[in-house]
Amino acid sequence: MATAKKKLVQWEPTDVKKELLKKYPAKVARKRAKQILINEALENTTPEITANVRTIPGIITMRGCTYAGCKGVIMGPTRDIINLVHGPIGCSFYAWLTRRNQTDAGVDGENYIPYCFSTDMQDSDIIFGGEKKLAAAIQEIYDIFHPKAITIFATCPVGLIGDDIHTVARNMKAQLGDCNVFAFSCEGYKGVSQSAGHHIANNQVFTHMVGENNDEKAGEYKINLLGEYNIGGDGFEIDRILRKCGITTISTFSGNSTYDQFASAHKADLSCVMCHRSINYVADMMETKFGIPWIKVNFIGAKSTIKSLRKIAEYFGDQKLIDRVEAVIAEEMPAVDAVCSDVLTRTAGKTAMLFVGGSRAHHYQDLFAEMGMKTISAGYEFAHRDDYEGRRVIPTLKVDADSRNIEEIEVEADPERFKPRKTEAELKALEDKGFKFKEYDGIMPDMDPGALVIDDCNQYEAEKLVELMKPDIFCAGIKEKFSIQKLGVPMKQLHSYDSGGPYAGFKGAVNFYKEIDRLVNSKVWSYMKAPWQESPELSATYVWE
Ligand code: CFM
């Protein structure tokens, strides 16, 4: 049924919303209605969206858990720290190398990412407590690997039985002497999604590692790249471009990162925030404690990459850098333009839907726009209102019981190391020219009026949307992949990139154009027919008949 020819163009966004809600019990429909908006952002009359709230029980959400956000997302890409999961083996096994954060082990070769470290809790540990087993595991890791740091992750049962992982960490750190040991209270149930896990991870990274190494770092135009996780090698492509421009990356949080990068992050002169959702508070803390200003960047999309590079150059204000950035853009863009104009003839006017995490549903709209494609519906799994409506709503965000679960750390200016990177007058001069610091307007202003913005979209709604609106491509994750393809619509995973990528930067844009062109122009999906679509009444006989 789901062929492009049968597009039901008569569906108005308000009708689509009604259809999505129709099957729900009244109370559920009322709640979901607040998480589904019809975008009117250009006039800026869109009412507030409900986000970062618990998924309604019974709904099959696309979200992950707090442990996933802490262990998998933030700490997962760090190569020379040993991440030890305190819990039953499943929590570790199913988080083992499933996120495609790539690593280059560098000259030192220290890389623990291929390993899986777990305390493998058993029934007896749940009954009698697992602290001794945890301490023994830390000792064993130390004896075998001598890593710079060991971090401990609490899984759900650890919180339930009350193991004091922080005390174990403190004692082991003192006992070992030359290994930093600290823990995360990131039990899966701790928040409403992986977003809570990001926050728990980042707070501890900031407390236990940032600022530890005071050695001067070589290089010019020093930046931190915050919220870039090197999925499918995105970070490598961004590094390539930055290096070519002469920009020095002191740290990346946390794609292909090392202990020393976290420890030296306070030596940078600018923080560039890629994924706002997972890390914006770290950028704020860096500014408060060390005086490093921050800007929002986006390296997904060739135009966004150009904009971000120019913004970094404008911040440093050095003509040498400004010229170098322009030279790099001039050198890189012909190859990008050539592929873009080729695919445009086949991709312009096609439609996309994006339901991904907390930032990609926004960033990837830029790439689709470059291909002349329109995003008719998009939303985040777990972002907060500021990622939809912009940072201006932050002061009005309600603090509920779930947010209260996450420790807010108090940060003050460091008495010795706080150093304003620019004078008040310099900052003002930049701002007067339209330069924006710590600004993010969210996804909604960039979406067309009438587009459907859906927070925490679920399996049922995803299938319903595809059925009603027939997008030319649907982007989400592995849980959605096959149900969407079975509806006859191509599906691109924008978490893992379906083993593809990189899609960031210039070379990434070219990869993406080609991949999407191939997908949206493939007829194979429309040929798919389930048996019941050919003959709606299935009949069968019992073998003994
Ligand atoms: Fe940030 Fe991410 Fe994302 Fe995210 Fe993620 Fe990811 Fe994502 Mo999957 S940190 S919010 S928790 S950009 S793992 S690299 S793709 S959901 S949109």
How many beta-strand elements? 14
CATH superfamily of one domain: Nitrogenase molybdenum iron protein domain
Q: Give, in spatial order, the strands making up the sheet with the most strands.
A: 1-12-11-10-13-14
Q: How large a portion of the residues is in β-strands, by DSSP E?
A: 5-15%
Radius of gyration: 24 Å
CATH class of one domain: Alpha Beta
The mean pLDDT is 95
Q: Tell me about the biggest sheet? A: 6 strands, mixed
The helix content, as a percent range, equals: 40-55%
At the third CATH level, what is the topology name of one domain? Rossmann fold
Q: Give me the number of helical elements.
A: 22
Can I get a quick summary?
The protein has 545 residues and is an alpha/beta fold.
Care to describe what's here?
The chain has 545 residues and is of the alpha/beta class. It has a domain at 66-188: Rossmann fold. It is 43% helix and 12% strand. It contains 22 helices and 14 strands. The strands form 3 sheets. It has a 6-stranded mixed sheet, with helices on both faces. The two termini are 34 Å apart. FE-MO-S cluster is lined by residues 69, 73, 99, 194, 227, 229, 231, 275, 277-278, 356-360, 495.
